Amino acid sequence: MSIEVKVPQLPESVADATLVSWHKGPGDRVSRDENLVDLETDKVVLEVPSPADGVLKEIRIQDGTTVTSGEILAVIEAGAAATPEPAAASAAAPSSQPSAAPVAAAPTPAEEAAARGGAADKLSPAVRRLVEEHGLDAAMIPGSGRDGRITKADVMQFLDRGETPTPTPAPSAPAPVAGSRGERRVPMTRLRALIADRMVEAQHAAAMLTSFNEVDLSEVMRLRKQYRDSFEKKYGVRIGYMSFFVKAAIEALRKFPVVNASVEDNDIVYHDYHDVGIAVSTERGLLVPVLRNVESLSFADIENNIVDYATRARDGQIQIGELTGGTFTITNGGVFGSLMSTPIINPPQSAILGMHKIQERPMVVDGEIRIRPMMYIALTYDHRIIDGREAVQFLVSVKESLEDPARLLIQV
To answer: Domain range spanning residue 220?
Structure first.
């Protein structure tokens, strides 16, 4: 029986998608719920699973094509057997010498895993690349994702345990010839095009200005060191810097609610809740998953949500609804070594807080020069509704909360 594989129903905010890549070809055996093809929308990559066990009979839409809800992507022959590989031609002239037995090419770790249960076939593109880069056997990696799928965090934990074989170096691309003046033209992905449009929109629509301050993170580092082990043992996640910054930002937003507001026509919309977007860098581009009602979350809640969102965003498993909304954004360029930057507002929000690299510097403390772990912080804000006074005082509030974390407990 032939079964059509169709583009799933796309969310109302998404008009179409781009077919990125097929994971199976005509004649290949497929299993029910196995990912057949990736579709890229403006925000996320959607996986299209096989509706039944059988054989992929026909592919009707090729890579790079724009598709809409309900379009037929392929046809599966349910219950059919895979097309056998054609036998090698044997018409060569007879030889007086005994022929050597053919030597089969050594299977890759991913192929071996697939032969032992299809683990490699169920990997997301990002996880598959990571597995292949390190020469791992996917069947040996415990999966913590949905239906036992392996996530990027699972692979990283597997690597941290030192259970990896020596990776086989992949063949490298030929190096450019010295003096070469070649050029390559590569179309933007849908996500990159969307990011470009939104960044230009932000520059044109808002009167952006950036204010800076610096923070001594000695107390935050001391608390993280003191409670690191007990926190991780109790909550199953490490306590990072981001939860401190999120908590400090919430206290500052309570004091200066206009920083948490947005502009609609000639109105200022004040939000009585705090939905904070956390910028995550992925291979596809920058994504901003949103933590809802952060004012009601604990440190552990924030850390667990950030790890979950970041992992799924990089694995292409994030949902569109988790990227929409948001009243304020925090971005951490420090993880890449940025010492100072001017982040761009994420419309229709009115402000974004930038964290940067922690660097030891000589500071004057109580009349003495001491070495302190310092970080520059930046607030880019829409000057149409946020005055410089409010922006500066917002940063001062964040600074005070981080330099004296007890303030976060008693909210002063």
So the answer is: 208-410
